[in-house]
């Protein structure tokens, strides 16, 4: 099964899957200051949960665009 496997989504047949599969933990302890612009290009296969305690001031814009690797020309629903 590849990253663009539509069967990996619990919404298969209802909406297009963005892709990605795997199991893992990402942990950040302490301070993680981020300032400026953060850009991510390519594939980022991360699924999981994020938990925060306390105030989390944030602002900005997020854009997500993608397509499957199967070459389908139809619209993608997220």
UniProtKB/TrEMBL annotation:
GO CC terms, sorted: egg chorion
This protein's record includes keyword Repeat: yes
Protein's UniProt keywords contain Repeat: yes
Pfam families, A to Z: Chorion_1
InterPro entries: Chorion
An example Gene Ontology biological process: chorion-containing eggshell formation
UniProtKB keywords: Repeat
GO molecular function, one term: structural constituent of egg chorion
UniProt protein name: Uncharacterized protein
Record-stated family: Belongs to the chorion protein family.
